[in-house]
Amino acid sequence: MNPIQAPLNEMRFLLEHVFDADATWQSMPALAGVADLDTATAILDEAARINAELVHPLNRSGDEEGVRFEDGAVLTPSGYKEAYNAFVEGGWVGLCGDPEYGGMGMPKMLGVLVDEIAYSACNAFNLYSSLTAGAALAINAHGTDELKAQYLPKLYSGEWAGAMDMTEPQAGSDLRNIRTRAEPQDDGSYLISGSKIFITGGDQDMTDNVVHLVLAKISGASSLSLFLVPKRLPDTDGNAGESNGVSVGSIEHKMGLKGSATCVMNFDSARGWLIGRENKGLACMFTMMNYERLAIGIQGLGSAQAAVQMATEYAKERLQGTAPGSANPSDAIIVHGDVRRMLLTIRTLTDAGRVLALDTGKQLDLAKFSDDAAVIEKASRYVGLLTPVAKAFLTDRGLDITIMAQQVFGGHGYIRETGIEQLVRDTRIAQIYEGTNGIQAIDFLGRKVCGDNLATLKAFVAEKLTTLEGESSKKRALEAGFSRFIEVASWINERKLANPSLINASAVEMLDAFGYLLYGLYHLTMAQVAGRAAPELASAKAQFCDFYFAKVLPRADALLTQVQAGDEVVMGIDESLL
Amino acid sequence: MNPIQAPLNEMRFLLEHVFDADATWQSMPALAGVADLDTATAILDEAARINAELVHPLNRSGDEEGVRFEDGAVLTPSGYKEAYNAFVEGGWVGLCGDPEYGGMGMPKMLGVLVDEIAYSACNAFNLYSSLTAGAALAINAHGTDELKAQYLPKLYSGEWAGAMDMTEPQAGSDLRNIRTRAEPQDDGSYLISGSKIFITGGDQDMTDNVVHLVLAKISGASSLSLFLVPKRLPDTDGNAGESNGVSVGSIEHKMGLKGSATCVMNFDSARGWLIGRENKGLACMFTMMNYERLAIGIQGLGSAQAAVQMATEYAKERLQGTAPGSANPSDAIIVHGDVRRMLLTIRTLTDAGRVLALDTGKQLDLAKFSDDAAVIEKASRYVGLLTPVAKAFLTDRGLDITIMAQQVFGGHGYIRETGIEQLVRDTRIAQIYEGTNGIQAIDFLGRKVCGDNLATLKAFVAEKLTTLEGESSKKRALEAGFSRFIEVASWINERKLANPSLINASAVEMLDAFGYLLYGLYHLTMAQVAGRAAPELASAKAQFCDFYFAKVLPRADALLTQVQAGDEVVMGIDESLL
Asked: Which residues does the UniProt record annotate as the domain Acyl-CoA oxidase/dehydrogenase middle (chains A, B) (predicted)?
């Protein structure tokens, strides 16, 4: 069983027909001549190959062996170092990086598909390069030209890795409580002191250097600033030189992601350089955060895709019971209605999830590469609206999907060697890190929906609905569903000042309702586009759409009903009764 | 943090006021004089103490260390053997056992609460004694007097353990494919040969002997028979004597339950004795299966209860963010609406789950102990209706609850030492073994609901609704909900012959819808009873009820809408498109 036969046909269909990628990319000067459908197809083919051949074989062994911490050093599982070096040589870290510093300058729409393939192959392995790409993004967006020239080529090439250092024991979801300090030096650098926890890829034995982006407070300040703090200082040739007061205190033992090092990092007067402006560290982080949050959403999507493939293959092979009227001694379990219901549920959620990832990626590309100010402004708002949905909904459904896929395996799904239980354990964290899904939902409802009194939400929904062709009961169902969603969101918006807990208490249900509606829209879009432009997929897409509307979409209405009950049932009860 | 402060006040409230246990027990001659509320309270107190002091300390170490297999022997984690011997000395294996053979003769209504406490303390540890009690039950129900005298005292005392040997590699959900053979011998015994997999507690190093109940086919037969096959044959003094051709081939490495041995068992001309009649093995297993399935449901409930306690304590202690308008630098996270929503969701699902467990236990008691044939007949049908719901709904919601509780912990929930991630891993199997929850749902809808054309369902629902007091919008909501459920079930029942896949494709949604409605009924019942008879609980119960109706119950309607879409969307799609 090979769980990472990447869905290349599906990806090509989405790029070519649903997103009209060539036209989209040609409309942006920085992408015209760089990205086109044929290049994208070749890159996806190669991503599928290298992840299948090089990365996926380490998935289970890395889980069994895990990362070790010995004498202050972090040791990755056997084979990681060799595979990592071969992987980064392919230029994958710099796929969407700035060409001025050695990146390939590809659009995020392509990046999300490559990320999906990589996470399908191995959640843990892909985090090292994903974090590195994220650090490069922040440095590119906010660093000085000197820092960019010094660090970006090393990061894009994979010679050095990157890490994000935000969390402290007392400062998780609430970063105001960060205690790490930065002392300004005469040469313009800072000395950073403090401890960080839960630092993914905080150290490892695969690269010469790790470049930490550290949130800290400049002495005397109460706001946060962002610093670049390398594990080893660059020498005069730009290579990793002397140590810099950055050390690993310990590593965490986790439910999953055992091949990924989760470190306690200690900074002891480590030399760092400001990224962006003083006391504006959070704003710098947030530039990057939209990309990172989407990337973590795609961890959920990649796990889901692997789970769908594994469960579907198993259901076609495993003989048990018979179909009604069958004369066989046993049939493959895919004949059973309940097994099919599970397979179709996880398939339709995964297929729509890929569209959400691409849609978010497209808005990121427009915001970054367009030369039309109006396009940039609108795309930026859509990025804001879609990012928390992509992060939370892709990872929440990602866990649902891996668990349902595991159920298809029966008892064999609980055994480690089958591999499906590892997907459940590995993907579980994606609902938590990079901002818990509760935080995402509050960002979505509080800032993105209510922040501009629903203006962005209404514009986005109206625009999406106009892309649907003709008239149909499904289109009317979506119009009614979104209309109800907007009505409930308006009801919340009107009460947000008088009742400041209403958003917090309703946020997850609202994000989920929006996600289910949006997936319905994506399914109808795919069915319509395939019917018109991809006859080989038309039947499947139409039937997946029928299934989704019948068997999944009704959840949205229930969620909105729950929200309309208000928050008194949540907030009214005395804590002592819990 | 101690996750097993058993909810003794809640249990007492349910026994005394909701189930009127004293009156119920006095109505059954075999229980009158044996079970009363004071005895039950004393037993629950002691169960809470011994599980907290003796068993729970092994929960995490057993998970870290796991069961080992060395030189053909199964070695349990450090401390298991000592704790097990101390545990069984308390008579817990024989709690509900037959007093004629050394059991305590207590009702299952008490047994389910003791089981919940034990599973809360340690999923893995409790399986050994739970399987032993299950084996004793089957022997007592169908074994000869000689076998009963020989084996039951050893099982009730815990000196010997029990195991159920059903699954084979090619025979999981479909037991017709079992290949294990039984060769009749002149002395009335049989020689058993074959291999079984996934045998929980198939062997260990804690007891002198393991008594296997093995499903096999007598040579020449196509139906299954049930055999008692001890690992070691009793000697003339009735103690464990010579070996009996029963050996362990290997043990499984699993997602969780690492302290529980899951064995491949090999039977090589092992001597066995028939339990029940030849070729009627499945019927014998099913006697026991109702108890076993309820017990596994309670694994889900026990995990849920532990998770609720852990998450609630954490939410009251963890400082992060502030409540709207708060002047504190940080508040405990329980002030946040989304955290409260999670805590109330898991609390209300767990509280109602306990009522479902007790309700099922009560019907088992009536069916077993009543001297009124009409009572026995009705209770047996209610047992049939409720058992698959208790098994599937308690374990499906059990996983949901542990996952939501884990989310309350944020990043700390993903770290092993916090303990909440172990609950997720340990309880996951309960949705699979003892008949997958899909199988439970098909049993529920196909056999229990449609099998008698809804007669039992309608009688049960009508009886339950009449127990509700007065008039209220909640009561009307339940009446409408159950009425719609019956309507949809009738629609399925009318089509079951013409469309034989409809039941299979709709079963899980129907079981879930019924479960959510039933939980609504239990919450309204608790609120009404507390309001009348337990003023100290009245406010909490009323508010939990409000929350459940507003924030959870709407799921039932969505599920019924999904079912009404029919099964064409499930069955119609060509397999090749998946």
From this structure: 163-269
